[in-house]
Give the backbone structure.
Amino acid sequence: MHMIDNQTMKHNALENLSGNWGKSVLAVFLFAVISTALTLLTNPLLGLDEITTLKEDIIANIQGTLINYVLLMPLYVGTTWMLQSLVQGERPSFGFIFSPFRRFWRYMLTGLILVVLLTFWTLLLVIPGIIKFYSYSQTLYILREHPDYSPLDAIRESKEKIQGFKWRYLY
């Protein structure tokens, strides 16, 4: 299998993004606005504005992070896929960002599984958590390529695909 060097991939991606920077920036901005709004809405509901001890603060932050991450996962998936489509030279409509909401529970479950796995590995030690982050990094792209895969199938394939390429992924 012929491997394209990183410089060529970056050059091709920039070339395909030409004329689409506005759409890319707007997609990321929209995600940031919705994410911030959700956090501002859920924090009072979870009682995150009435923290009195460090233990309560830690527990509340973990709860808030889990809830926000899982609820935002379909939007994150759509934003990621839209950017991927633009980089690959496709011209998706802006509504593409919201397409994963049609299978909300699938992507919510994917987000929950990834959060639990990454939290577990990071609790062991920070370095294994970082390594696993890279191992699971291709999960969303695999779900796009293979809509019939379960979240665990996509995570498993992500680990296989990234095996031996973690350092290259960093560069």
